[in-house]
Design a protein that fits this description.
This protein is mainly alpha-helical. It has one domain. It contains 2 helices and no strands. It is globular and about 35 Å long. The N terminus is likely disordered.
C-alpha cells in the first residue's frame, strides 16, 4: 500500500515508498522495519542482492547504507524461506 499520504509530513515515508516501488521492478515485495536510526529489511534472491544494494546506495547516497563517514554499508546474510 503506498504511503503517499505521509510524504509531506515525513520524508522517511517518502523514501520507504520509493524504495518499495523500485524493488517491485525486480519482482521483490518488501516490508520495512523502523527503529530509532531506521533499518531497512528486505528479502531478495541471492543473485539480485548486490544489484539492489548498489541501486539503493546510488539513488539515496545520504540515507541508505550510511553509517557516520562510511557509505555503502549493509549487513547481508543468506537464508532460506520456511
Amino acid at each position: 500500500m503506498p504511503l503517499s499520504h505521509l510524504h509531506k509530513s515525513n520524508p522517511l515515508m517518502h523514501l520507504m515508498d520509493t524504495v518499495r516501488q523500485a524493488l517491485r521492478l525486480f519482482g521483490i515485495l518488501i516490508s520495512f522495519s523502523i527503529m530509532p536510526k531506521y533499518k531497512l529489511v528486505f528479502f531478495t534472491p541471492r543473485a539480485s542482492t548486490q544489484t539492489i544494494l548498489q541501486h539503493l546506495f546510488s539513488r539515496f547516497p545520504n540515507h541508505v547504507g550510511r553509517i557516520g563517514a562510511y557509505g555503502g554499508c549493509a549487513f547481508v546474510t543468506p537464508g532460506t524461506g520456511a
